[in-house]
Amino acid sequence: MSEDLLALFRKTGALLDGHFILRSGLHSRQYFQCALLLQYTDIAARICGQLAEKLRPFECDAVISPALGGIIVGQEVARSLGKRHIFVEKEGDGLTLRRGFKIEPGQRFVVAEDVVTRGGRVQQTIDIVRAHGGIVTAAGVIVDRSGGHKPQFGSPFVSLIEMDVETFPPDQLPPDLEKIPAVKPGSK
User: Full-prediction pTM beyond 0.85?
Assistant: First the structure.
């Protein structure tokens, strides 16, 4: 499955090569631009449906995702599971629940996201659910690029692809990346 999905990322131009600054501030030679993959609704339904199948064993009342990258993933996973979908969005340096979305005490959620490197946005989403008295039963992503540094969310974590993609702190760039201008293609 992961080789087929990786080929699909390449075919749609969603796996980029160059010098990228990730949301975490780390630098990388590869970037997964899931929006380029998910712009095709048939692909989005199929890929997110596969993620939903990996999340199906975890009971939930709803799906929640961090904006912006996780919205399509969350919507499609929720549709496959027959659940409602809500999202948290950026406010200042963090995420917040807005737009009248509600999390009731005891409500069970799965978190759906497109790509995880360190898991910061997923963790912030989990923290919001828990702060409202909700329960996170699992988190799922299309691409887990955390390598040997898999995030610990306090609940099961599943993905469709696991990759060990090299990342570098900005002050420890290898010579080849120092020669290439860095771009930050992700959401702001």
Answer: yes
